[in-house]
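INFO  loader      accepted 1 record
INFO  loader      residues=226
INFO  predictor   begin
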Amino acid sequence: MGLPNEGVKNINRFMNIYKHIYAYLQQIDDPIVFELGMHWAEDTIRIINSCKSSPAYYGFEPDSRNIKKINEQVQRYNLDVNIIHGAISNQIGETTLYLSDGIHERSGNQMTGANSIRKPKEVVDRFKWIDFKGEETVKTYTIDQFCKDNGVDHIDFIWSDIQGCEYDMIEGALKMLPTIGMMLLEYSDIELYAGQKGLSDILKLLGSDWEVVVKTNADILVKKIR
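INFO  predictor   done
INFO  writer      dumping tokens
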């Protein structure tokens, strides 16, 4: 996900999430997959390889710096992916993307995975190696309108790594929600980004039709049960 995992225990639990995703996608022919926040397409490859057959794959990434790396990965691994340069939100239009930067203290990677359309707040104190110096105007999409415009009638799996905007994403997908099978959602009960909702708010918005399959200290895997 966008922010670093904390500790071996959490890494092991996240691997358990991958096991559940793999088992789920192996049951579906030609799945429709939405990846929200592709970063450098590291998870894109893993998700596609988890599918029983070739998915209809829609990947959203707002940061133009990351789009170049995504295109390199797509060409290198011959991935069949629809790349949408923009952010998922609860509104359609344009907004400010707050660009993350800095160098990870352990990996040495440039920290372009913590961008958000919500203004950074506690994230800058909890992760000292991340800073936010730039901004970019980006297009925003809702799941509902995108699906309507592109003839998508259901979504089998959503991978959402959009830095404090998961609640907003669900708000913009209420019409499609009954047709979605499984979602991986990042969350935080600390206000890492201004105005972001915590886990209890996310689960309340989802309602009783959804159950939590796996929960770590930063991610939940939820599945529609009715």
